[in-house]
Design brief:
Radius of gyration: 14 Å
Structural class: alpha/beta
CATH architecture: Alpha-Beta Complex
Strand order of the largest sheet: 4-1-5-7-6-8
Mean pLDDT: 90
CATH superfamily: Spore Coat Polysaccharide Biosynthesis Protein SpsA, Chain A
Low-confidence stretches: none
Order of helices and strands: EEEHEHEHEEHHEH
Number of strands: 8
Largest sheet: 6 strands, mixed
Helix content: 25-40%
Strand content: 15-25%
Length: 164
Amino acid sequence: MADRALTGILLVGGASSRFGSPKELAEVEGETLRDRAWRLLGDACDERFAVGRGGLADPGTGPVAAIAAGLRAASHDVAVVVPVDMPLLTVAALHALADACHDAAVALAGPLPCAVARRALPAFETGELRLRTVLAGLDTARVELDPALLANVNTPADLARIPG
């Protein structure tokens, strides 16, 4: 369990090109992916921001810029970052990432979800667009999470495989 205050960063607003419509509006158990992820961050964190289309900022350059925007707004030393399309994540999984975070922490499959220390913000402001490259330059812990929790919804077929 995370023993420190956390900021939650929800990544929303990707192109959804493989999904065919805005995937954040797709539903699991009667709840949109966006609402589900927002609720999870509310349960796990002391503050939360949505970054992307309709959120804190619309960086338009992918997760690195979105994480930078969230870290700039963060009040707490560590932020957990959740993409809108991972509906099976749990509070315990996010807290495990936060607990392992020095500069950053990712699941073994990485790079998302992740935890990032606010002090790592300069690494996200270099112009590098690849999240894996940014994380490789940091002291990034690798955390073993249940692979089932990392189910990613990129297509309607992926959504159909989500339990519930």
